[in-house]
Amino acid sequence: MSGDILDLDATDQLAALAGGKISAVELLDLATGREAKLREQLNLVIVRDTDSARSAARSIDDRRAGGETLGPLAGLPMTLKDTLDVVGMPASAGVQALRDRLTCLDAETAALARAAGAVFWGKTNIPVMAGDWQSFNSLYGVSNNPWNPARTTGGSSGGAAGALATGITALEIGSDIGGSLRVPAGFCGVYSHKPSWEAVSQRGHVPPAPGSKAPRDLNVVGPMARSARDLQMLFSILSRSRTQAAPTPRLNTLKIGLWLDEPLYALDPEARVVVEAYGRSLDDAGAMVELIASPLDAAVLRDCYQTLLGSVIAQDLTDAQNANLQSMRPEALAAKAAGAPMAGQVLSYTATHLEWLSADEVRFSLIDQVAQVFGKFDVILAPVTPVPAFPHDHGPFNTRVLSMSDGQTIPYASMLDWISMATTCRLPVTCVPAGLTTSGLPVGIQIIGPSGGDARTLAVAAALSEIRSFVPPQLP
């Protein structure tokens, strides 16, 4: 078969492998060949272990020829986000000291995919310690968006999303604590699933430090793909309960709450047009689509999320950094009373245990409140980000702004707004492509479900594929 097989989703690639239309070695060579052609312009895959991958692919071909029963991913070449440990390719998280590790075990998710027959051959780029919505670091450079190389792929699973969009890989495993699965999927026009918290193991994800056992609050690990059915397949392999795909509902049976307006959240006019058109297309197809107000008090949610997230991030700071933040705390407390915008960030990094417990109590109150919305609607649809993929900006965080199509600018931290409800409340979210702006950039949409409702959001995503599915960028 020609290289066009790389443009198929994983399900169809696996069918071609099982049907003898292509060998695992041949498919691996096509994938690595495409990456080599796009490497200079896009820089998505930053570590490769093709010798081990070719050996694994050859073994699968031999076993298939011998009539063995193989796993559901048998022979499929895959890349992995560089926050997940893989034998032969330890996670660097963009940090030299982590890259210098000589050995590691597979992360639990990587081990599950490998046992299912996946052939790992490369790691995809991320920001330092997965801490940005742009994928760049001093070790491996900048990843460029295949829709417009002057713009970011998103982060932190940015290299992963770009590799999917270009056909370099058909499946990826990413992670999300501040939109890191959803933002890149939206920016690159692909699919992702942010599971309910701890539905998928975090073991082997870096950060935290290699070998850590305790699951991180807010953080999740989940699948990325080019179709909803591929997300369902990979999630069934990765999930602790081995969650099987739910039946795809008919569009005319769905009750959908469309959340587009929140006074504290911005939404680029071009992106809004795309999401509104998507909602109308669902309504025209028979779904009950109703515009809803913000499900939660956005100010309360923001303060709660900031405290919970800051407490996690502080674990990865150096002793000197934490000492410096502690020295700023008295001034920050006074500034917060005066309404200074950066005071909350300092206080979140230095939160006491009692302050964290207070935020956790607020979190569970918010969980109860949002649960009531799902008494009326099957899912909530919402934007992923306030803007589509934006131009590269590697300046200090506190100098960055986001420019909207109407000329307005908003704070860089606004990237946390639309994603914060599901993260704080530990809700599952499937991100799907909604369309393109007039300037040709992808816009994603969140399908948010009730706690534990991973199978539901994935099934709704499969139903919504009738309206729009993956559209590839024009590759250079």
Report on this model:
The protein is built from 15 helices and 17 strands. It has helices at residues 10-18, 24-42, 50-65, 96-99, 108-115, 158-165, 182-188, 228-238, 269-284, 298-314, 319-337, 343-349, 353-373, 420-424, 454-464, and strands spanning 45-48, 77-81, 119-124, 136-137, 141-142, 144-145, 148-152, 171-176, 191-194, 220-225, 255-259, 288-292, 379-383, 401-403, 409-411, 429-436, 442-448. It has 476 residues and is an alpha+beta fold. α10 (298-314) crosses α13. Among the domains are: 3-190 and 212-238, Amidase signature (AS) enzymes (Alpha-Beta Complex); 300-360, no CATH class. It is globular. The strands form five sheets. Strands 8-10-9-16-17-13-11-12 form an eight-stranded mixed sheet, sandwiched between helices. A three-stranded mixed sheet has the order 1-3-2.
